[in-house]
Amino acid sequence: MQNGTRLAAIDIGSNSFRLEIGRVDHGQIHRSEYLKETVRLGNGLDSARNLTPEAMQRGWDALARFGERLAGFERSQVRAVATQTLREARNRDEFLLRARTALGFGIDVIPGREEARLIYQGVAHLLPQGESSDAERRLVIDIGGRSTELILGQKLKALVTESYRVGSVAWSMKYFPQGQFTAGAFRTAEVAAQALLDDALGSYTRDRWDVAYGASGTIGAVGDVLAAAGGAPGVVTREGLDWLLDRLLKAGSADKLRMEGMREDRKAVIGGGVSVLRALFDLLRIDHMKVAAGALRHGVLYELLERDEAVADLRTTTVERLAARFDTDAAQSARVEDAASALFVQLVPEARGGATTSRSGRSLRKLQWAARLHEIGMQISHSDYHKHGAYILDHADAPGFAVNEMHVLSQLVLGHRGKLRKIEPALDEPSFAAQLLALRLAVILCHAHREPEPAALSVESAGPRAFAVRCSADWCERFPQSAHLLREEVLAWQKTPWRLTLAVG
C-alpha cells in the first residue's frame, strides 16, 4: 500500500465507540486523528437481550458523526467492527441496518475469538521495538464493556485466543447497580468473575507466558490512575490494585469518586472493571502487567494494510481446516468451485481475475469458499446436509471472518440445493443471487461427481432480477439427468422475485 494512504478503523464497543485514522508510512501506521464517544451501548440491553431505542439512537448519532469525518474515504480504506453487545443483541439487524447508513460503510460483527486475535495484532504491532524479544511469550488481556479477551502469543502471531462474557459494563450493572462501592459487592463480583473465567486456568497457566500486557479501556484507565498516584508509568501491579480498591471503598460511590487520572466517563464502570481485573490477577497469578498502547482498532488498521495478502491467506486456511475437520470430498469440492467460478464470471465479468480490491472479486472469493464447504454437513447426515452445513458455518469459530461474513457463506450453503424460499431475504442482494445461481448450476453440472463438459452452459444477466441460461440440444441428449435438473432449477426460481429462463439450441 502506498505511503500516505489513509486508513480508518471503527471499534463499536459495548462502552465506547472509537475512530482511529492513520497514514501509511513504510509499512507502519501513524495516527493522524482519534475520536472517542462514550455511548454505553451495552447498558441498553434489556432483559430480553434487545437494544433499547434510546441506546440504538445514541449509537446511530455517534456513527453519523464518525461518518461525516470519513467522507472521502474509499471502502477499502475503512473497516468497522462491532463486539460483544452486538453479538448478544437479538435486534442487532435493526440496529445495523441504520448504523451502516449513518456511518456510510459496512459493519462487521466479529466473533469473540476473532476479536481476541485482532486485539493481539494491535498490541504486538505497537510494542516499542527493543523492549521485547522475539522469544518473548505474551499474555494479553483486554477487559471490555461486556467481554474479556485472553490471548497467548509470540511475535505477531496469536497462538491461543478466548473471549469470556464478563466486562466492566456488565459487571458494574450487575454488582454495582447504583454506583455504590462496598467490600461485599467487590467480593461477590470478584468471585463471580473467577467462576466464569475459571476454565482459563487450563490454557493460560503461568508457565506458558513471560510478560502480561493489558489492552484498552479498563486496564488503561487503571494504569493512568496508578501513574497519577506516583506509580511507575504504564504498569499495573497487585499492590496498586489493592490501593485502588481501598480508594474506591473510601469514596463509597462513583458519584463521590475524585481521583487524579480518572476520566469522568470511566467512573460509572470502574467498579466492574476493577473487580474483573483483580479476579484475573488472582486466577492467573499475575503480579505485574504492562499497559499496552495497541488495542482492537490498531489490529483492524494493520489488517487493512495487509488485508489482501495476510487475511485472505488466513481465511483460506480457515476454510481448508473446516473442510478437513468435516472430511469433505476434496475432489468434488474442487469441481464445484471451478464450475461455479466460471459461471459467476459469466454473470459478473468484472470479477474476472479475482482481484479482491473490487467488490465483484470479493464476491467471487466468497463463492469459492462456499463451494469448498457446500458438503460440510455430510458428516452429520446425508439427509438435509445443506441445513446441517449452514448451521455449522453460522456457529463455527472461523479466524479471519466476521459473523456476518460467515452468515453469507452459511446462506450460500443452505441455498445450494432445494427450495429457495428458505433464503429469500438474502436474494434481495443481486450479488448474492448471482453467487447462488452459479453455485446451484455448478452442483447440477457436477452431480455425478465427475468433471463437467467444458462450456456446457452459458449464463448471463437478462435485465433487472433476471438470468438466462443456454445449453445445446446435443448436451441435453447426452446428459438427460443434468438437463432434467436444469429444467427443475428454472421452476425453482419462478417462486422467487427473480426470473430464470432456459434456451436449448
What are the SSEs and their pairings?
Layout: E1 6-12, E2 16-25, E3 28-38, H1 53-69, E4 78-82, H2 84-88, H3 92-103, E5 107-109, H4 112-126, E6 137-143, E7 148-154, E8 157-164, H5 168-175, H6 183-197, E9 211-215, H7 216-228, E10 235-237, H8 238-251, H9 264-283, E11 288-291, H10 296-325, H11 330-347, H12 359-372, H13 385-395, H14 403-415, H15 430-445, E12 458-461, E13 466-471, H16 473-478, H17 480-493, E14 499-504
Helix pairs in contact: 1-3, 4-10, 5-9, 6-9, 7-9, 8-9, 11-12, 11-15, 12-14, 12-15, 13-14, 15-17
Structure description:
Helices cover 48% and strands 17% of the residues. It is of the alpha/beta class. Helix 1 (53-69) packs parallel to helix 3 and helix 15 (430-445) runs antiparallel to helix 17. It is elongated, with a radius of gyration of 26 Å. The two termini are 49 Å apart. The mean pLDDT is 94.
Q: Taking all residues together, what is the mean pLDDT?
A: 94
What is the count of structural domains? 3
**First-to-last CA distance:** 49 Å
The CATH C-level name of the largest domain is Mainly Alpha
Shape assignment? elongated
The fraction of residues assigned to DSSP E strands is 15-25%
Name the helicity range. 40-55%
Any idea what the CATH superfamily of the largest domain is called? Hypothetical protein af1432
The largest pleated sheet is described as: 6 strands, mixed
CATH topology of the largest domain: Hypothetical protein af1432
CATH architecture of the largest domain: Orthogonal Bundle
Structural class call reads: alpha/beta
Give me the side-by-side strand order of the main sheet: 8-7-6-9-11-10
Number of distinct beta strands? 14
Report the C-alpha radius of gyration, rounded. Answer: 26 Å
The low-pLDDT segments are none
Please count the helical segments: 17
